[in-house]
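General statements about sequence and structure are easier to judge against a single worked case. For one protein, we set the task of working out the structure tokens from the amino acid sequence alone. This step matters because it turns folding into a mapping between discrete strings. The amino acid sequence and the backbone structure tokens for this protein are reproduced below.
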Amino acid sequence: MTKLDFEKLHAFFCALPEEDLLYLKDDVTNRELIEQWTSQIDHKRVLAILALQNGQIVGDATLHFEHLGWSKHVGEIRCVVASEFQNRGIGTHMVHELVQHAIRRDLKKVSIMMMDCQQKEHKTFERIGFRKAATLPGYVVDIHGDEHDLVIMVNEPEDIWKNMEELILNMDSRGDRPL
């Protein structure tokens, strides 16, 4: 992601259906927030990758990490794919790339956070190697103001990598589509 991606990234987020926006950590329809993200890129804290189709953004994935402090060995992955491009392997490939980057950065743990009601996503991330580590009751609020439990899933990047490689190989040999 670069500064030049601002307009396309904002358009991508604004085009997401409400059911996808409901579960995102930030209000990604806020133009000022997206402008801040694209104008203040800090590769010491966030690696952002975009999936494009015909010049339009169809997926966004980020790896957040600290380079100082007690959690400098931990990264957090966030990923969203346009609904019409889901279940085509785009999210899998983006997460795969971020896990590879986590390994290169020598991160010891990678986490993903989601609401308790995102059951499909829980299963997807379990398939690629994440394990539920904690549930924080009533910890997050969706865009409608409704409280939800926050589920934190984690694993070591190398374990996730092995699971993803095996999953992708098995899907390719059976002709299945990736996640």
